[in-house]
Fold these 2 entries.
Entry 1:
Amino acid sequence: MRFHLLAPSKKVWFSATLLILVLMAFTGTRFAGLFPSFGHHPDYVEVDYGYFIDSSNSHILKYVRESAIFRHIDNPNDIPWELGKKSYWVKLDVTNLESQHRHLSLYFDTPMIDRLNIYHFNGNGVEVNHWVLGDSVERGYKIGDMPPAVSFMLDGFENATVYMQVFSAGYPAMPIWLMDRHEYHSLTQLLHAVWGGFVAVMLLVATYTFAVYVSLKERVYLVYGCYVLTSFILLGAVHGFGIYIFPEPVQIFFSNNTISLTFGLFLLALLYAHLYLRVHQMNTMLRQVVIYSLMVLSGLMMITLVVPEHVGAIFLLTTQPLFYSLIAVLVWKRWKVAQKWSWMFSFSWLPLVIAGIFPPLLLTGHLEYTLLSRYAFLIGTVTSVLLMALALAERFRQQRETIVYELTHDNLSSTPNANVLSVVMDSLIRSNKPFSFCCFQIDRFRAWHLTCHWKKNSTLSDRSASAWTALSTVTV
């Protein structure tokens, strides 16, 4: 068969999935204690936090410094981030308690923040630095900004004040970590390793899947390849590493339309389930429900391109449980028809369903913002993509076995047919082995099969085959 080497292999995908899961477990164990918690700061550095909410987006830095009333908090996680067009001002009073100078870094997990202005003042109230970050059209992220952070130095016993203005049309949550320079470098190396591993796995799976589609011409592989690429683009926008791959205007477009990309991901996932479970071959109400759902998801994907991001987020939070419920119904309804590979399909969705809980909980503030919760969806996506590839390989194997069986066995009696006879006789002739050949015909055998229960047909076929096998053995 042409491109036979590209045929999906269950053993290959199982080995690859197991290897990547082992590497992920090793990485998690190795670097489990690397990430500091919120409110963490280096030893011999004192930090006081405060915040002020500008609901009108009209206050300037001078007013904020002189007149704004900052509410003191012990932990930056206590800032009440909410959806909506508001500006959040965060104030950090940082004091070096040592006589030696310190190199510090403020790390922000902010690749989706529209605008982040950072002002650094020394102990005399003089502005030392001013940084501008964010994915707005006016100023997108550069490669040097990833992961987003700013660095500054404090002399011995020096006091400094940092003001941060945070604005985003979507969810403006912005975790803040104050680290020593070497801690930040270690974190940077790990995040780049995670990003690089994710990019490598997703691109390899997508390339292989499209090659299989070229070989087999089955639409399910094309849809699955598009799903993998969409997941790759979406997570590149959410975590910011897409700037290493796409031009800056393209990355800004993706970053500003993550809600629309998510609906596109839902659309492709539903279409993948539709084809994988062969719902498109049914003329039932379930097929109509899937078709109408695909239309709705297409409409939501287009609508969220133009509506404000916080409005699109409400649509997304409402749609997600309905989407997972529909996938569950598809599996339930098609379990008996595709039971040989349905369990693999169901198992491949488990990591995605579990990891999919984290983004809405983070978005609504019901889950603490940590690097583990932040990257849970990325980890779940990689695991699910590999398991889906494994499910496709199992589906292909079962289909190939079915096709071979249908080509070599009679559809009524389930006994070997003329194709098997031809192959066996050719083999015996080539090996110069003597053999006897007996041919007989049962009158009205097909008509009798059509009028009897399939169990009786199967029993008759088995007994007939056994009797003629015994008779031929005795005759020989």
Entry 2:
Amino acid sequence: MRTKCTFKIALLLAAFAQLAAAQEVVRHPDAAQPLQQRWSWAVEQSSQSRFKKGYWIGYSIERLMEENSTIGSMHIKSGRIFRGAGKSLSELIYDIATPLELPSRHEGKSERMVMKEVGIFLGFTSGGDELRKVQESTFELSVDFKELPLLWLGEAQDEQSLALLERLYRRAASSETKKDLISAIGLHSESAPRRTFLAGVLAGNEDSEIRKQAAFWLGQVDDPEALRILQQTAKADRSTEVRKQAVFAMSQMHLPEAEDALFELARAQADREVCKDAIFWLAQKGSERAATFLKDIIYKGIDDSEIQKHAVFSLTQLPDKQGTVVLLDIAENHRSTAVRKEALFWLGQSKDTRALRILKQTALTERSFELRKQAVFALSQMHLPEAEEVLIELAQNQTDREICKEALFWLAQTAAEKAVPILKDAVFKDADIAIQKQAVFALTQLSDNQGIPILIDIAKNHRNPAVRKDAIFWLGQSGDSRATEALLKIVRGQNDKEE
């Protein structure tokens, strides 16, 4: 009987705890009133004692979005998207339940544009003295209100919402709050008031981080006047970071004029940072014009290796490996060693089998050791069986001993199982002591201390004292118990046969 009573009490306590944790929502009685009037009502309500710990004021706007896109807090597990804990906004505000798991863009494969309701929530300290947090969310997601009550005002027109948020911005004390308010303003549809506010912040005296936020949101709508403002900012703003952000913002626009503006900035090499960013974002856009333009910069532009190297990197950002053919040509034929090195590096990162011929040929025949060495490294980064076979061939090369040493090292780093017999042969059979010592060092680079048994053998039995000395040194550095035991035997003058 006592057990049943205890169980019932536990259930009651759990029920009370659930009620206590339930989100309180106080709704405005007339959502048809102007937003400012409803806001005044919320401020009046907040003076009540139940709001003494703080509160939220929320309302919604409509935004044109992709059907399966969301704004707000969510998490991804095993490729699936889930909203946060607690009720969704749809259930909290309208009592319409939504599933915990959300459709993803990939699953739905829909780019259909629809009008979605987006909630804007403003969190205040008690008394409404300080706006401390701004959150935005679509209604299929949940919002953590930290167990503080929500004063819900209903839907609002963009014009009224923008006017309210701009007033709050003028009063905001912290940079973080200002950035949050700029984001909320940026979510509104394209309009003159939205553009005027963001452009004013961008041209004003706020710190760079706030002005960067304004630049970002100007680029989120395809507005020709916003493009003009961003273009001017990219050319003349006092802050390098803001100029670069303006370039990025322009890259987010789908206007044909936006790509033209990026081409213009990419050609203006006086501002190197803006030029480099424009080159990069042109590559991200991936048009045929961008591919041709990058090749022209690398081959026909001014003799500036830094800009040319950045253009080489940008070739790797073109979609569908469009830039690989140009990279192959650069690696083989460009007049600048620095630019060729850059191309060799990115060919190694590409894992494209078309690069194998160029990398092998460069490692074997190029006059510049710097380029031969880079080609060996690039081969090691491909992580392809065919590339490992080329490294083995180079490691056994009797003609170019420096490249042989490079190949031994990178084989140990990237292809341990294939490297072991090659390294052992190099230590015991190669006549060149420099190769023998490099192979000893390379054995220390094998994963999971695979080289320890061979190093012990070298330390005990190699014919050359200098090579034995190297092996003993690296055994001492290994921290492996097998090495410690072997070194103690060497110190005591013991060998395995005496045991």
